[in-house]
Every structure is written in structure tokens, then in C-alpha cells.
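Issue: ligand-bound run for adenosine-5'-diphosphate - logging full I/O for the record.

Environment: standard queue, default settings, no custom constraints.

Inputs:
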Amino acid sequence: MNKTKNPFRFGEPATNEFFTDRKKEIEELIGHLKKGENLFIYAYRRMGKTSLIKSALKMMENDKQAIAIYVDLQKATSCAQFLEVYAMAISEAMFELKEKLEKIAKFFKRIVPSFEIGGGGKWKIRFDFTKTTENIHSALDEIFDLPQQMAQEYNIRVVVALDEFQEIEGLHGGEFEMLIKPFISKHPLVNYVFIGSKIHIATKMFTDKSRPFYKMALVYPLTPVDPKIMADFICERFESTGKSIQRKFAEQIVEISQNIPYHVQMVGHHLWQVTSKDVTEEGLYQAIDLVIYHQGELYFNLYDSSSHHQRAVLRALAKTKEMFSQDTIMKYNLGSASSVQASLKALIRNGFVQKDEDGYKIGDPFFEKWLNRN
Ligand SMILES: Nc1ncnc2c1ncn2[C@@H]1O[C@H](COP(=O)(O)OP(=O)(O)O)[C@@H](O)[C@H]1O
Ligand SMILES: [Mg+2]
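Outputs:
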């Protein structure tokens, strides 16, 4: 048994030695932020958006260029939850500044936080907005005002990152965008980074003329890491633990993973685990099997939650690009071209299927393999 720690990590934002490249992006993002611009960053899930923005913000914090408020809207399925995660993020940013609890509590004026002891005996601030429905406007007003007050108090730029921003789309009867737009501050020291992973939903929010956030931010599509740099990263990670991998295998990992950093790290993780010294071809196949095995339950649930027709479309798509041909429709019993279109649309909305210049494809390369095996 090799006791060294696995040099590949996935499932949490990549940092330090687990994070590669993105130098150009970090420089560009910081450049825009320092100019006071709002940004809308988009890319499919697991392409490294959260890792990138967190790294860029950390850098700005370390250089005393900004205070960062990072808000994950993934769990914000109501206005009350939106307020809660945002308030928590603000209080966390103040904790980072080593502010005392009393001071943090005082910062919130109309919204009264409560305190509880969290894990490790540390005090935690709690917010309860469940009774705020009538007051949602004034609560929003206050919350969105706080970054501005922080900027004034500390005389430094405040960057608010709203991750998985598209999740707000359905809130407040679909009118949440309209509701919060007036609060997006025009303060010279506060700017926003909106991050979206459901591309078709998120991009519309910023590029459709009829939407409240139209032109509210500079649109920044995040492109993949250069595949050569990704392959270098794989080799370097193996070498850092005294194991080795031939470059052709590293390139193969990038290819099989369609250069999605999450999948690269997942294959790397399993491959490292089954390798005692030098990576072999057999080891690589074993690692791929392990990825599919470990993801199996997730894939089953994705499949299971889809309608009967969507499943048939997924099965067809795992085999062919000719989704509208008579052959495909007959073979997979897909009914009509219009119903194929409707299912593809729903699957895109769910994030299972992607559409680009080459047509439709299953977003997760290992989900595709799983479909072909099961
Ligand atoms: N720059 C990077 N270098 C190496 N691995 C990365 C990088 N960015 C992301 N990853 C890997 O991909 C996973 C998903 O990244 P994340 O930033 O959460 O993506 P997103 O926010 O786009 O869904 C991370 O857990 C990590 O394993
Ligand atoms: Mg993310």
C-alpha cells in the first residue's frame, strides 16, 4: 500500500497544487474587476468556473485589492433562502476579516441574526427569513446595501460572486430578476460576477433584450484548459508522488474525459489508486471502469428521473448523431421528429444533453459509456 495522498481531487473547487493553468483567465478577470466591471461567466458544469473565480478572488484578497463575497445559489430555491445564503456569505466575508461577532451583527440592521455554536465550537450566525415574505423588499434592500457599506467602511473594492445565478430564474413567480435588478448597486467600489452553468438559461438572462439583466455584465465564456496543459498536469501529479505515466496515456485521459477537468481528475484519481509505480494500459481501462462504477448510482438516478421517451432519446444519442433520421426514429421507437425535438429540449434544460455546432451530445462522457453498457 502506498501511503502517499492521492494527487487528484474532484468534487470541490480545485486549489493550490490541484489547480492548473487559467493564468490568462485570472489575469483577464482581475483586470475587468479592477475596472469596476460586472461579469457574467458561463460554461457547462464541471468546467472549472467555481475553481477559477475562487482562485481569482483569493488572489485579489491576498493582494488587498478586494473583499470577496462568494454566494452559491445552488440551494436558493426560494426568496427566503436567497436572502439566507447571501446574508451568510456576507457574514463569512466579515469573519474572514477577523471581525468580532458583535460588529458583524450590528452591520445587519433591520435583519436580526441569531447565533449558534457550529462545528468545532465556533460561533455561527444564523438568519431566518422564513417569516419575511411581506418584507422581502426591505430585506433585499438591506442585504444588497451591505457590500456597499463594507466597501465604504474598509475603503476597498467588494466583489460579489453569485454562483449558479440561473437558479434565481424561477423565484418569486419568475419575477425575482426584476425584483433584484434595482438593488444591483451602482457603487464604484462594488461589482458583481454572475456565474452560470445551465448555459441556455443563463446566457438568455444577459443577452436577451427583454430581460432585466440584459447588458448588465460583460459576457465571458470560459473556454476549456488547453489539452496539452491538462496532459502536463496529469503527468506532473503522478510524478509528484513518485509514480509515472507515459504522455500518451495522459493524452488519452484528456480525450476520454473530453477535457472536462472534473472527469480528468476523477480518472486520474482512480488510475493513481490502481497504479503501484508505472501506469499501464490495463490500469487505464480499470480506472475507466471504476469511474463508471462509482458514478453508476448517479447515472441510474438521472436516467430514472427522465421520462420514457427521454430515456429512448438518451439511448439513441449514446449511439448516434443522426437523431432525426428515419432509421434512428424507427430503431429507438422515437415517434416523430417533433417529439424527439421536445425531449432533446427537456434534456438540454436538465443539463444532460448539450448542443453545439456538431449537433447534440450527451454532456457527461461517462454517462454515455454507462448508457451503452446498461
Ligand atoms: N484549473 C483546474 N485545474 C485542475 N482541476 C480543475 C480545475 N478547475 C476545475 N478542476 C476540477 O474540476 C472539478 C469541477 O470544478 P468546478 O470549479 O467546481 O467546476 P464548475 O464550477 O464549472 O462546475 C473540480 O472539483 C476539480 O477536480
Ligand atoms: Mg460551480
